[in-house]
Amino acid sequence: MTVEAVTEYAARVLAANPGPMTLEGTNTWILRAPDASTAVVVDPGPLLTGHLRTVLDAVASYGCEVEVVLLTHGHFDHSEGAAWFAERAGCGVRSVDPAFRLAGRSGGSAEGPGGLAEGDVITAGALRVEVLATPGHTLDSVCFWLPQDGSLLTGDTVLGRGTSVVAHPDGALGPYLDSLERLSAFASSSGVQRLLPGHGPVIEDPTGVLDFYLQHRQERLAQVREALAAGAVTPREVVERVYTDVDPVLWPAAERSVQAQLDYLHG
Known about the structure:
With 267 residues, the chain is α+β, with helices and mostly antiparallel strands. Helix content is 34%, strand content 21%. The strands form three sheets. It has a six-stranded mixed beta sheet with strand order 1-2-3-4-5-6, with helices on one face.
């Protein structure tokens, strides 16, 4: 496990949890202003002590303390190690979901101590992190904007490769489409230079990738409509018609995605 300096403000540590849903593994992000004495850690990842210790050592090597842990959402491959990490770092955890919050020195939001909500601003020295509410992949999903760096951390809302799963019951397609539209407009208007995803490589074409995500979702919805018109009834039957290009090992996830699509179409 190594620490990769991606931008002047952001470094990545890749967790050793590769898989069909996690790609190469979870990206844990260390955010800090140049020469700062405090840092922010986003998505410590799964409870893999070797990975978490690498992140702690990386922060220490910068001469920093961890101001706060932020979670893009509550899926275990992003959040499972948060409490272990925060205890050893001596900091709090902030998340939309109260289940993951731990008290710390970074305060909270309108959602309460340790909460995260639209418009919140987290600072660590000269670092500024702005919270964008982007529900859909999960209802507690948020993105983090670093205006000084031109970087937008997207969690699982946008991946570095392929497309994200919006799976019933955690995910909801209507809010997800709204979030993609919002991010596309934000990327165009705010000078977003890159996306730092929760899995996969850095995205250097934010607007192009967000437009692709929107197009892909509309194409999938059209395919689901065609499958229903051809007689498919259950999510499995839709998957068998629509997801023929997907490895069958991923079909259970595809079924949950189809259920979210059916909820959207029937809503």
